């Protein structure tokens, strides 16, 4: 469960902005920022992979209700993806 889902961010927020933001809660291993396939613009949501479950839990509790670059961010536990095989 080291993945944290986020949404509600401004389209101007970059992966590096998100990495810096979540680093306040622990080690960030990766950032997935979902983008529009045609325009390449952020769709305002994605996942951050933290180094451990404890850091993911810390991110969810300590960053809840925070803002990033002046705008709100909603954070929750990432749901497991369904295997379609």
List keywords for this structure.
Alpha-Beta Plaits; alpha+beta; two-stranded antiparallel ribbon; globular; 85 residues
Q: What does this protein structure show overall?
A:
This protein has 85 residues and is α+β, with helices and mostly antiparallel strands. Helix content is 21%, strand content 35%. It is built from 2 helices and 6 strands. A hairpin with a 6-residue loop joins β2 (28-35) and β3 (42-50). It is globular and about 35 Å long. The model has no long low-confidence stretch (mean pLDDT 90).
The portion of residues assigned to helices is 10-25%
State the fourth-level CATH superfamily: RRM (RNA recognition motif) domain
CATH architectural category: 2-Layer Sandwich
Instruction: Report the C-alpha radius of gyration, rounded.
Output: 13 Å
| SSE class | alpha+beta
Low-confidence spans: none
The spatial strand order of the largest sheet comes to 2-3-1-6
Tally of discrete structural domains: 1
What is the molecular shape? globular
The profile of the biggest β sheet is: 4 strands, antiparallel
What portion of residues belong to β-strands?
A: 35-45%
The SSE order reads EHEEHEEE
Averaging pLDDT over every residue, what do you get? 90
């Amino acid at each position: 469960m080291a993945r944290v889902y986020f949404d509600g961010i401004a389209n101007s927020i970059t992966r590096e902005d998100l990495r810096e933001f979540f680093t306040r809660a622990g080690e960030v291993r990766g950032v997935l920022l979902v983008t529009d396939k045609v325009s390449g613009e952020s769709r305002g949501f994605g996942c951050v992979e933290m180094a451990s479950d404890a850091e993911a839990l810390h991110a969810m509790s300590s960053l809840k209700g925070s803002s990033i670059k002046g705008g709100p961010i909603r954070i929750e536990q990432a749901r497991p993806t369904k295997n379609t095989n």
